[in-house]
């Protein structure tokens, strides 16, 4: 009888540990991440735009995200049809992603990004506004 009670107690403890482990081991949601501009302004012409992907709760940078959607246009100035090419560039800082763009006019520009973070389901989407100066 003692062995039966002991086995049931061990089984209940293991179930409890599994339940607690699944709750505390839950992953963050894609809403817990955001892109932030490193610099709010760029110079007109060939510009390097740097953004940082961070986990909102602790502010830590998120390296190795896969950025699959990029767009740079003048939507803040009411000219969303005024888009320009944007190309990824290498970065040496973890969690910082760099892009090269040809910024043809001074004014407000919107950088739209879509990314995937390893181990998370869903897509991180942000629109960041920066200012191009002459």
What topology does this entry show?
Elements: H1 2-24, E1 33-37, E2 41-43, E3 45-55, E4 66-74, E5 79-84, E6 86-89, E7 96-103, E8 107-116, E9 124-133
Parallel strand pairs: 2-9
Antiparallel strand pairs: 1-3, 3-7, 4-5, 4-8, 6-7, 8-9
CATH superfamily: Immunoglobulins
DSSP summary: helix tally: 1
Instruction: Give the helix level as a range of percent.
Output: 10-25%
Q: Tell me the β content.
A: over 45%
What count of structural domains?
1
Q: What's the level 1 CATH class?
A: Mainly Beta
In terms of structural class, how would the helical and strand content be classed?
alpha+beta
CATH architecture: Sandwich
Average pLDDT confidence is: 86
Rg result: 23 Å
Strand order of the largest sheet: 2-9-8-4-5
Number of strands: 9
Q: Per CATH, what is the topology? A: Immunoglobulin-like
Which consecutive residue ranges, at least 5 long each, have pLDDT under 50?
16-26
What is the string of SSEs from the N terminus onward?
A: HEEEEEEEEE
Keywords:
single chain, 134 residues, alpha+beta, four-stranded antiparallel β-sheet
Question: Could you explain how this protein is built, in words?
Answer:
This protein is of the alpha+beta class and 134 residues long. It has a single domain (30-133), classed as Immunoglobulins (Immunoglobulin-like), CATH 2.60.40. It is 17% helix and 49% strand. It has one helix and nine strands, in the order H-E-E-E-E-E-E-E-E-E. A five-stranded mixed sheet has the order 2-9-8-4-5, with no helix packed on it. Strand 8 (107-116) and strand 9 form a beta hairpin. The termini are far apart.
């Amino acid at each position: 009888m003692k062995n039966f009670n002991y086995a049931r107690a061990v089984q209940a403890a293991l179930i409890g540990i599994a339940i607690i482990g699944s709750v505390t081991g839950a992953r963050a949601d894609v809403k817990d991440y955001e892109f932030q501009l490193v610099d709010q302004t760029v110079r007109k012409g060939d510009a390097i735009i740097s953004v940082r992907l961070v986990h909102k709760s602790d502010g830590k940078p998120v390296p190795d995200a896969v950025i699959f959607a990029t767009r740079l246009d003048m939507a803040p100035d009411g000219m969303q049809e005024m888009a320009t090419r944007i190309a990824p560039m290498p970065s040496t800082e973890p969690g910082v992603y760099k892009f090269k763009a040809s910024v043809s006019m001074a004014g407000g520009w919107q950088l739209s990004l879509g990314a995937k973070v390893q181990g998370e389901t869903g897509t991180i989407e942000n629109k960041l506004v920066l200012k191009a100066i002459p």
